[in-house]
Amino acid sequence: MTRVVLLIASALITLISGWDATQTDRVSTVISRSEFTDVHMVLILSTFVTFVTAMEAFFKYTDKSNTYTLMTYEFRSLKRRMCYDFEKDLELYAANKDDYFKEYQEILRSQKDLIDDSNE
């Protein structure tokens, strides 16, 4: 909730800092007629860029993407090992089923720890 409030506040600060208080009446009539000047477009784009930048900073999409990439890599590695054992020898595959499941649980546990650490 705090992140959302900060996100909205940062966009509003950008909008308010660019607003010319001496021309408020003229601007409101221009906006009501849906006529945007270059200044309005710059102000709107600036607010949008601030909003997008703040979203990335607050919600850390890059970190989440990296965590997901690591998890999929580990799952694919486990899958390749399972397929290799299955093709090599069915008895070896059957004997290692419990180990595969333990490794699967360890991957999930490590990802949960990474996600919990990134939220702090």
Question: How would you characterize the overall build of this protein?
Answer:
The protein has 120 residues and is mainly alpha-helical. The protein folds into 2 domains: 2-59, no CATH class; 62-119. Helices cover 88% and strands 0% of the residues. α1 runs antiparallel to α3 (38-59) and α4 (61-88) runs antiparallel to α6. The protein is rod-shaped and about 75 Å long. It starts with a helix and ends with a helix.
Please count the helical segments: 6
Mean pLDDT: 76
- Global Rg: 26 Å
Instruction: Give the CA-CA distance, first to last residue.
Output: 14 Å
Major sheet attributes: none
Strand content: under 5%
Unreliable residue runs:
none
The residue fraction in helices comes out at over 70%
The count of β-strands is 0
Q: What spatial form do the alpha-carbon principal axes imply? A: rod-shaped
Order of helices and strands: HHHHHH
Structural class: mainly alpha
The number of domains: 2
Write the topology of this structure.
Elements: H1 2-18, H2 24-32, H3 38-59, H4 61-88, H5 90-95, H6 97-119
Helix pairs in contact: 1-3, 4-6
Key traits:
single chain; 120 residues; mainly alpha; 6 helices; rod-shaped
Concise overview:
The chain is mostly helical. The protein has helices at residues 2-18, 24-32, 38-59, 61-88, 90-95, 97-119.
